[in-house]
Amino acid sequence: MTVEPRETLVVDLDGTLLRSDMLFESFWSALGRDWRSPLRSAAALSRGRAALKRHLAQAGHVEVATLPYDAEVIAFIETWRDAGGRTALVTASDHALAEAVGAHLGLFDEIHGSDGRSNLKADRKGRFLEDRFGRKGFAYMGDAAADLPVWKRAARAITVNAPARLRRDAERVCDAVDHLGTGTRSVTPYLKAMRPHQWLKNMLVFLPVLAAHQLHAQPLLSALLAFVAFSLVASSVYVLNDLLDLAADRAHPRKRDRPFASGSIPIAHGTWMAAGLLVIGALFATVIGGEFLLVMLGYYLLTTAYSLHLKRRIVVDICVLAGLYTIRIVAGGVATGLPLSVWLLAFSVFFFLSLAAVKRQAELIDSAARGNLEASGRGYHVDDLPIISMVAIGAGYVSVLVMTLYVNTPAVMTLYPRPEALWGVCAVLLYWITRTVLITHRGQMHDDPVVYAARDRISRVCFVIILGFVVAGAVA
Question: Could you give the number of structural domains in the chain?
C-alpha cells in the first residue's frame, strides 16, 4: 500500500482506529456509574443523536488510555506521517472524546467530532471534509457503509476489516481503494464471552435430586432443563457484567484479554448477546413452569443489581454471591418438585459465603501484588485482607459443622445404610477449605475459586474421595 503525503489522511474512530464504538463505550460507562442513566439518555436522544453522544460523553468516564486501538491502523498512520503527510481524526463520536483520544495518541494534526448539535456522519461528514480539504483532496480510512458518501468524495478509500460487499461498494464509488485487514472473524470470542466454564456452577440444580436419591428420568430431565435455562441466563449476566466492567477489566493484567475489553467482539454485539441469551433462557424456564420462571427472574434481578451496584458494597457483595449460589439449589428443588432440606440450605449458605470471601481475598492479594491499595471496582482495601480471610475460613468451618450435625439426623439414617461413611466427607471438606484459603493467601488462586477447583488436581482428587465416601454410605 503506497502513501501519498500530498493528501491529508482522514481517519474514522469507531471500528477503524478503535476496535470498539465510543457511543456504546460511553453508554455502558454511564450505566455503570448510575443505573438511571438509560432514562436520561432517552431524554437526550429526543434532541437528536448528537445530543445523546454529548450527554453520554459527560455522564460516562471512558479511559482512553486503555481502549482497544488497532495496532495496524496506528502503524499505517505513523507511516503516513513519517512520509510527510498530514493526518486528521474525524468521527461521529462526540468531539470531547475524540480530543481525548487524539491527545493520548498524538498522531493527528487536527481533530473533529460531533458537537452536540450536528452528528458528523455519512453525507454530513462527506460534505464537511470536502469543504475543508477540497473534492478529492483527502484519503479516508473507514469501516462501515455509512462511510460510502465520504469515500465518494475522497481521492482514496481505505477500508478496515470491511466485508466483501462493502469492499465492492467502496470500489464502485472511489477510483483508488485499498483494503486493510487487521483481524479475522471467529465465533470463538463469542463463545468465550458466554463463559461456558462457569456453567459448572449451574450443576448445583442437580443437588436436590442427588441429595434425595431421586435418580429417575423425570426429575433428572427437569433438572437438565433447569441447568440449560440457568446457563443461558447466567451467560447473559456475564456479558452484561463484562460490558459494565470494561474499564476495570482493561486495567487488569488478565481480564484485559476478555473479548469485550480487548475489542475481539464489538460492544454493540454484546448488547444484543445479553438480551438474546436472556430471552432464550427465559423460554426454557417457561417450559419448566411459572414458579421456576419466577425463581429465574429473581436470580436475574439480583445479579443485575449486583453488577450495577451491590458488588461495590462491602460484605453485602459476598452475601449476595453466596445467595446466588444457593438460588441455584432452590431452583433445582422448584424445577423437580423436591422439598429442600434445611440442612442443605444452611450448608450451602455458609459454604458459598466462604467461596465468595475467597474470591475477594484473591482479588485483594492480586491488587496488593500490583501495588494497588484497593480492589478495582470493589469497596475493599488491602488492609481488609485479615478480616476477609477470617470470613473465608470461618464460614467454611461452619459449613462443615452443619454437615457433621446433618450426618446424625434421622433423615440420613433413612437415606444411607452406612451413615458413618459421611464423616469422611466432613474430614475432606475441612482439609479442602483450609488448603484453599492457604493457597489464596499465597497468591496462587484463580479469579474464581470454582474455576480453580475444576482445574486443580488436588481439588479433583478431593472430589473423587468425597464421592467415594457418599457411595460407601449409600451402599448396604
Answer: 2
